[in-house]
Amino acid sequence: MTEELEIFLEDCDDQLQMMEDALVDMQSNGASESTIGTIFRAVHTIKGSAGMFGFDDIVTFAHTGENLFDSIRQGDVGVCEEMISLFLLCKDHMEVLINLLTEDKELSAAQKEVGHNLIQRLEGYLPRAQIKEENIEDIPSTIVIEAAKWHISIRFHKDFFTTGMSINSVFKFFNKVGKVLKIQPIIYNIPSIEDINPLHPYIGFEVCLLADLSKSEVEDIFEFIQEDVDLYIFLCDDSDEYNTLVSIRKEPELKNELINAKFIDEDTLIEPELIIPTVEEKEEIVLNQKEEEIVLNQKEEEIVLNQKEEEEEEIVLNQKEEEEEIVLNQKEEEEEIVLNQKEEEEIVLNKKEESSEPKKKAVSSLRVDSSKIDILINYMSEISITNSRILTLIDDEGSEIGETVIHMKQLLEFVSDGIMDMRMVKVGDSFNKFRRIVSDTAKKIGKDVDFVISGEDTELDKTVVERISDPLLHMLRNSIDHGVELPEDRVACGKPAQGRVDLRAYQDSGTIVIEIEDNGKGLDRDRILAKAIENGSVKKNNNLSDSEIYKLIFSAGLSTAETVSAISGRGVGMDVVKRNIEDLRGSVEIESTIGQGSKITIRLPLTLAVIDGFLLQVGDTKYIIPLENIKECIELTTIEQESLNGNEFINVRGEVLPLLDIRLLLGENKSITERQNIVIVYFGKKIVGLLVDELLGEHQTVIKSLGIVFDQLSGISGASVLGSGEIALIFDVARLIELRNEG
Amino acid sequence: MELDLDTEMNLDDMDDDLLVIGDSQQYLFFILAGDIYAIDVNNISEMIEYQAITKVPLMLPYIKGVTNVRGKIITVLDLRERFGLGETKLNYKTSLVITNNIALIIDEVHEVTSVEESNLKESINFGVKIERRFVKNMASYNNTHIVILDCDEVLNIKEISQKRASK
Q1: Is residue A572 part of a domain?
Q2: Tell me, what CATH number does A14's domain have?
Q3: Three-state DSSP class for A31?
Q4: Secondary structure class of A197 (helix, strand, coil)
Q5: A711/B71 Cβ within 8 A
């Protein structure tokens, strides 16, 4: 895939997401100007970029959508519930079309059919007028007139010169095809000398050309530059057209210029305000009025800004006056003020364009392939390791070199913190994607669910966000399918008919907590237990605690749903969910009260790549415990050791903690030191004391995979290369605690 | 001078030919517990001197642990123990042969040379000290038969990733 195509696909993803967000918003809050605008822009952007790549399927499809949204934007068509569902389907179809590109596949017949249907349904909403109008536009105006007098009004876009064309060559061409009868340069757009950009053509022309050409042939003169100029061409005899010209140019001075240059008599020109728009223009004017309304709305916000600008402009205005006096010799002050006002309007208009852009774009951002950041992180860690190696080689921290290396170490930490920060994204975007799925799911099974998201601003490593997304979705579906009851059942239980599912994210002591809570019927402890005994995963006479029983839903092949629905109940999934979370060094817990609902709590590390760890030794091997999991370290005296012998618990200041002898767990034989230590670790609410040999101190470390050979090794989540080049293994505290509790 | 240049160029060409022109393939011959074994060089990413290894607990005895090769973490497997020929006794000739992110401990590198396909034979049952499944085929080499190892079987992930049976 080419880089451009990748960018296109990524952009499409964003646009589709924006579209969906806006549509879902519309569903719950009704259509607003901003949501309609967002959707229109998204469709338009996709259409535009798809056109650049020549993806005709997408262009055709998007075009219909764009037309309809244009009409909606102009108020010609209202939005109803049905339409929103239709748009959601269209959005899905658009996604299909775009995904096909990724897979480099052709559109299947069924997909074509879907697209065709959607287009027809979309067109059903289009006002008839617009369809007709398009047809009119298609008819080319090819009335041939001999030696006609053409009025050509031309304004050059500001980057005209960058196209390599010159104004001179335009006039040369005029002379080639006919005879220039009259010419009036339009110079009132030239700014004062301070503001002038020599690369911009501020000048414009009103030309009367006698030529043996039809209108389209005159237009052909400008074929190569038509993108870079504003043209208005009409027959000189048509005085109405002059009125139109004055009105579309929006240049108050133009009228006088035209009269002075004797293009037309004063009498034939009506005041611009009184011009009755021709049928063709009606639409444009409706649009303009709309724009003005928006401008008015925004003007209030801009007032403060504008006042400042007014002050500045006054200065500019004065300078302008002086200059224009030189150039033109006669300029009425009145007109200057009008000009000034017009400029102001333009500024406001520009502002409007800026501010109507989606808010996300306000922060300038750079799109970087996340694998590039991963590479950077990898190199950063290598540099840090090499740097610590230098320090060990110097063996004299007090020397000047030593100090420099230590300084270097600090700087490197800043850099790596900065790089790590780049990986952090807000969970909100990914959470909002669930809205639609939740509402679709609920609708499908006839449940009424209020889906509440909080903590969208919580930041999490991008990889974690990506990998947690599917498990979360699965659990949300479970909550809706198994948790929340049908409206009538809820009412029967004395609960409000509408159920509620909460999705929350927050930071808690070095971990990110994600909670899914519903106020449904809760987990049925006895049924889970019965099911587990039935399929043999639990013995009959067990002594399981409630939370242990709830955890059984994460084991494979256990589903208490009596019927298998399209959404859940197959008993696969929750085990995958648990594994996914554990792969991220996270944990998952369930609380539940019958009749009141359940809460699933997921704890995840802030980031996957780097941890602040505590280095220690057990047997011959060095280990790292993530600092965020450590509560405290206790040194054991020999006497204490003896009293501890064989004991599985330890008394720390009156608190009895379960103890895990790491040496025993790892099958190490003898302690290498006399002194032993206890590291008290916690994960979530669980605390365990780990009996280890030696404590070696803090260590910031990059987590690396141990390799597939060690996949089944539980309790160790990865490895890290130390400054000496040695490798230390990283403990997975959540798993260690589980191992201790399993005995 | 011209002649010299020509020969150099020819040598370059020949090197390529050795790898490309079929019927012959390069093998690493190495010594393990006093016998010579061979591995197809296409399986090997590099060979290094033996270096410090970090023990990883709870694994099968022949999984010695991990080692750091230029920042990369590589699993180390004692080939002698894998074949049931006893643990490798380290000396200055002990080397690591890295294949597929796993380093094999061998006693000594013998040589890298090419073997013509006509010199390859089906595995034979007698005189081979290791399990038959590890043998891909045999090569005639200096008038003896040398075992060419089946790397896929030697590094069978399912098998070597098992945990040590608890005592």
Answers
A1: yes
A2: 1.20.120.160
A3: coil
A4: coil
A5: no
